[in-house]
Amino acid sequence: MWSLLLVGVIVPISCDAVGLVRHHAESSVDSNPLLADTVIPAYGKVKVEHVRPAVQGRLDEAKARLAELEASLHSSSGYDQLLPPLEELYELYNKPWAMFSHIQSVRNSPEMRKAEEELRPAIVDFGLRLSQSKAIFQALASLNASAAFADMPEAHQRAVSQELLDRRESGVALKGASAEEFNKLQKDLSELSNSYGEHVLDAKAAWNLTLHSKDQVKGIPKRALEAAAEAAKRAGYNDSTTENGPWLIGLDGPMVGPALMYGQDRSVREIILRADSTVASNGTNSNAEIVKKMLKLRQRKAELLEFHDYAALSLANKMARHEDAVNKLLDDIKAVARPAAQKDDDELQQFAASGAEVDGEKLPPLDHMEKWDIGFYAQRLQKARYGVDQEALRVYFPYAAAIHGVQGLTGRLFGISLELLENEEANAGKWHQDVNFYMVSRDGKTIGYLAVDPYSRPGQKKDGGWMMQLVTRRQLPDGHLVLPVAAVMTNFPRPQGGKPSLLSLGEVKTLFHEFGHAMQHLLTQQTESSVSGTNGIEWE
Description:
Elements: H1 15-27, H2 48-72, H3 79-106, H4 110-131, H5 134-145, H6 154-169, H7 176-206, E1 209-211, H8 222-234, E2 247-249, H9 253-262, H10 266-277, H11 288-304, H12 310-315, H13 323-354, E3 357-358, E4 361-362, H14 371-386, H15 390-393, H16 399-414, E5 417-421, H17 424-429, E6 436-442, E7 445-455, E8 466-471, E9 474-475, E10 481-482, E11 485-492, H18 505-522
Parallel strand pairs: 7-11
Antiparallel strand pairs: 1-2, 3-4, 5-6, 6-7, 8-11, 9-10
């Protein structure tokens, strides 16, 4: 189920309206890619001047469609009169904003942020208006309580039940002052959440450490130093070289990991780990007060919805359901895992204190190991005890081989093929030159499309790895089947100096993990948006 709060919305439109929407979108392909009716969304063509007219235009149309839907509903409205038009309105309203939000997460810019700040209040206002529609809620409740509900397909039952839960958590039952307070909380939380993300992105982009001495970078892998030298050149050190520096260290994952695991200068490791651990906790990008406000507002939101606390509210649509179940699971894991973890920690402390010799080099003995020492000494212990060097393993996992491997595995497991797509529509869909699109087929029939965006872009792209739903599989009222499109997002080290990107074993695991999520989205057989792919499924 698409979120009813802050971004996604719901409203019905008739089959005739669907035709009008699609026709209107087709007429705008060249002028506004956010409205283009293409199989693969044209992210690569989106400019900041497209955002306001697309989002505001669809918002105005959605308001009219909402009023029409509410007027058409009654206590005996069936599934076909309620859910299909509701999902079509989700698509009508959500598409340009969802495309824009994705671009913000992978190609962030000041101009895009300004547009978002201007449009977000209207988006949140309409999301609240829609999610709190009494007419839609009453129609859903009547359908859920009707005799016909038990005979509906399981997917339809799930869609109705999830809609009701989402709307209850969106404050549909609140009245008067409580409703006003709830809506203000939602608007404030939306603003705070957006500011939090921007602060993290800006703080990471702003921090860097320039090192001039070879002793300061001793032990750091050459591939990381190549990237650090290139970064120094971009910062104005035109004579920087991999061998002689200076080297500019940033807080992107492909740089922090090697520096902490292999850098022999303990003081440099401390500086980097402290900076990485305290991102956006001080200065102009501090999130300290934002976190405090968010915790307070979340607690009050939970109370307004008659939950004990925000954890209970969050668990209402998750598999655990109750806080006691979560605590029991954590306690059970702790009881089993802690003794082994303590044993590993004791062994690592002893190894660090021993001043052992690894690869002919004696390590400096430590009486007390700090957090910035753990990765360094753990890597040396692995090498001394098992002959395993995580950096040396990278030569076995060039990115091209890793992506080929995951393609082969998905083919064997699911009977599908992934073929690199290099046509005009795929090129228009690329939000960055790093991106590749693949056509996903089974038995010679196209069933969806997959984008892969592999490399880190500090200051523009969010950290970590994730799967993004770009298009959800669904069947339109006119019978047309919309094919799903997914994106696998990672932050692997970029190729340097004509050499391929070499992945660590952990990064390979990330690639396979996110591919798993993408397969769930792409291989779905459902045709209802709210239960298609990863939608409508409780979190673990």
